[in-house]
Design a protein that fits this description.
Length: 81
C-alpha cells in the first residue's frame, strides 16, 4: 500500500486529490490542516496542537475536530490506521 503522502495531493483551496483513484474531495481549512498533518505522519496530539496554533480554538474543540475528521476519513477509506 502506498503511503498517504504518495497517494494524495492537497491544494490550499481545500481540494484533496486521490492520485490512485482520481477522486477529489474538498475540505474546510481545519480539515486541510488535519489531513496534511496526517500525511506528514503527525500523531493525534500533534494534530490537536496544529489546530490550536493555526486557529483560535481551545484544545477540547481541536480534539473533537480531529476525532470527527478521522471518522470521516475512515468512512471514505482514506485513513491508513
Amino acid at each position: 500500500m502506498k503511503k498517504l503522502s504518495d497517494r494524495f495531493n492537497t491544494l490550499d483551496s481545500g481540494l484533496i486529490i486521490d492520485l490512485m483513484s482520481g477522486k477529489t474531495f474538498s475540505s474546510n481549512p481545519t480539515g486541510l490542516v488535519i489531513f496534511r498533518g496526517i500525511i506528514e505522519g503527525k500523531k493525534k496530539q500533534q494534530l490537536i496542537d496544529s489546530l490550536t496554533e493555526e486557529f483560535d480554538v481551545d484544545e477540547k474543540t481541536a480534539s473533537r475536530d480531529v476525532e470527527e475528521f478521522i471518522v470521516e476519513l475512515k468512512s471514505f477509506n482514506l485513513h491508513e490506521h
